[in-house]
Design goal:
Radius of gyration: 24 Å
CATH topology of the largest domain: Aminopeptidase
Strand content: 15-25%
Shape: elongated
Structural class: alpha/beta
Helix content: 25-40%
Distance between the termini: 22 Å
Number of strands: 16
Mean pLDDT: 93
CATH superfamily of the largest domain: Zn peptidases
Strand order of the largest sheet: 1-2-4-3-5-16-6-15
Length: about 400
């Protein structure tokens, strides 16, 4: 979008830019969350802190039926016009915080190493701003905030949240995810798939065992396991459209205890990732068939535990453009970049099985920093400018979408 056309966007003078006091408060709130990380379905302190602050803003948040997380409605819903939902995930990871900052985690082996504290704070900030706009009669549509627990626990906390009714009256949903490869102040956008499906796979192989001098008289289980490891991915590559990107990657293999004994039992585990929805939906049957075929060829008995994780996040093109316009209004088109599809999984995808939605990459890298950072590492941190950017992105999106509805 050209700079000339930016001025023509509806809502070019949108209200809702953060005040200095709210900006400072949100940074302090994020740091408090960072110091007190909680794992999935254990986010009681986080839930209580959010509930208290939303109530202070004059809102009526409701804790989810699972006991953590909450929803909070802003504006009056007439039962007809659908709400826009803004979602955050609130849980942390079971890894140590290795940073040397004043707000380092105070909980051993727990850290907000994926940026969920930032996600949570941006949605809280958006809620505070939108509540004030609603009081002024400036909120053109009802909005629902969703603070979801247990994103990091397969298949994620989203299915439980959906089961508890968080999407009642919701017609569309938006979210952000921190990206340490993108500068703070910038967001990354991509219509269509932006993350991948991710499932878990556990396989056991069994045979009668025997002496390594006579493998022909038994089931050579180590060879059978090795063949499953190497040949299943190759076989799948010929049974699904290559554009689906269906990939099995093994992370663990265990078999045997002695060099001259053919074992009776072997275990393998790994992940199944896929770039598109059709491939993901077909994956369980294809993986089962490939493993059984190779195991049978080597006379091994197989047992397969295929654990559904999450489908890919597939961004709705219209809502992706809404986020683009919202960021353009706030910070200009130069604050947007195209982003690639990630091979990571995100349970935001479960919401998109029910309503259209879009997720943006929220830049958290300090501009000029050339250090390579990644998610799910103990040294992960975020440039806190990202909080302001996220809040203003969400508020502008809510106002623009309301004007256009």
């Amino acid at each position: 979008m050209s700079r000339e056309s930016e001025a023509d966007l509806p809502g070019g003078a949108l209200p809702g830019v953060l005040s200095e006091s709210l900006r400072a408060e949100l940074i302090a709130f994020r740091r408090d969350l960072h110091m007190h990380p909680e794992l999935g379905n254990q986010e009681f302190r986080t839930t209580a802190a959010l509930k208290a602050r939303l109530e202070e803003a004059g809102l009526e948040p409701r804790v989810l039926t699972v006991g953590t997380g909450l929803i909070c409605d802003i504006g009056t819903w007439d039962g007809v016009r659908p709400r826009l939902a803004i979602r955050a995930d609130i849980d942390a990871l079971p890894i140590p915080d290795t940073k040397t900052v004043p707000y380092r985690s105070t909980v051993p082996d727990r850290a907000h190493a994926c940026g969920h504290d930032v996600h949570t704070t941006t949605v809280l900030g958006a809620g505070i701003v939108l509540a004030e706009l609603d009081r002024q009669g400036l909120l053109p549509q009802p909005v629902r905030l969703i603070f979801q627990p247990a994103e990091e626990v397969l298949p994620g906390g989203a299915p439980d949240a959906i089961e508890s009714g968080v999407l009642e009256g919701v017609g569309k949903i938006i979210a952000v995810h921190c990206d340490p490869r993108v500068d703070a102040g910038v967001i990354g956008l991509r219509p269509g798939p932006i993350t991948s499906a991710c499932d878990r796979l556990e396989v056991t192989l069994d045979g009668p065992g025997g002496h390594t001098a006579r493998p022909h008289l038994t089931t050579d289980l180590v060879t059978a396991a090795s063949k499953v490891v190497t040949e299943v991915p190759a076989l799948l590559a010929r049974r699904v459209d290559a554009r689906s990107g269906l990939a099995v990657t093994w992370g663990r293999i265990e078999a045997g205890h002695a060099c001259n004994v053919i074992p009776q039992h072997a275990e393998l585990s790994g992940t199944v990732r896929c770039l598109d929805l059709p491939g993901w939906r077909a994956a369980p049957d294809l993986v089962h068939a490939a493993i059984d075929e190779i195991a049978t060829l080597h006379r091994a008995k197989s047992q397969i535990n295929y654990i559904r994780g999450v489908p890919p996040v597939v961004n709705d093109p219209v809502l992706t453009e809404l986020l683009r316009d919202a960021q353009t209004v706030r910070r200009g088109s130069y604050a947007i970049e195209d982003t690639e599809q990630s091979l990571g999984g995100e349970d935001f995808s479960w919401y998109l099985e029910h309503v259209p939605g879009a997720m943006a990459r929220l830049g958290v890298r300090t501009p000029g920093d050339t250090t390579r950072h990644d998610l799910h590492r103990g040294d992960f941190d975020a440039d806190e400018l990202a909080i302001e950017v996220g809040v203003e992105l969400f508020t502008a999106a809510a106002l623009l979408d309301g004007e256009r509805a």
